[in-house]
């Protein structure tokens, strides 16, 4: 799971960033007045799924298991999470390292 942190100066900017992410298929997982946690579900590359499905159906059954493992990995661990917050420090008092919107969208649209 990749966690990206985006900075918002106020609640209006928090809403704008969340709306832009929603247009890129991110869904809100958790929300409070000073942050929103969003996730985009990735299911893996469709061509890879088709390839393993065809190999599994016509040649070797273990390819179907590989296909399920690839789907599980893509869904659970390769899906990017984005924290949009107005806070500047973590609960520990350390400064947060913020990402850019370009970094988030690059990871979200990545094929593999």
Coarse shape: elongated
How would you describe the oligomerization state of the chains in this entry?
Answer: single chain
* Rg (C-alpha, Å): 18 Å
Largest sheet, spatial ordering of strands? 1-4-3-2
Structural class: alpha+beta
Instruction: For the record, give the distance between the C-alpha atoms at the N and C termini, rounded to a whole number.
Output: 14 Å
Helix content: 40-55%
> How many distinct helices?
4
Mean of pLDDT: 90
* β-strand amount: 15-25%
- Low-confidence runs: none
Question: What can be said about the biggest beta sheet?
Answer: 4 strands, mixed
Task: Note the run of SSEs as H and E.
Answer: EHEEHHEH
The count of β-strands is 4
Features:
112 residues; alpha+beta; four-stranded mixed β-sheet; 4 helices; elongated
Characterise this structure.
The protein is α+β, with helices and mostly antiparallel strands and 112 residues long. Helix content is 44%, strand content 21%. The protein contains 4 helices and 4 strands. A hairpin with a 2-residue loop joins strand 2 (27-32) and strand 3 (35-39). The longest helix has 15 residues, at 62-76. It starts with a strand and ends with a helix.
């Amino acid at each position: 799971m990749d966690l990206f942190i985006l900075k918002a100066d106020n609640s209006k900017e928090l809403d704008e960033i969340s709306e832009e992410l929603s247009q890129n298929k991110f869904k809100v997982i958790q929300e409070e007045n000073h942050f929103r946690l969003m996730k985009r579900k990735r299911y893996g590359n469709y061509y890879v799924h088709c390839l393993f499905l065809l190999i599994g159906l016509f040649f070797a059954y273990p390819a179907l298991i590989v296909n399920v493992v690839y789907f599980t990995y893509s869904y659970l661990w390769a899906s990017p999470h984005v924290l949009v917050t107005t806070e500047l420090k973590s609960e520990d008092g350390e400064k947060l390292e913020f990402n850019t919107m370009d970094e988030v969208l690059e990871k979200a649209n990545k094929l593999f």
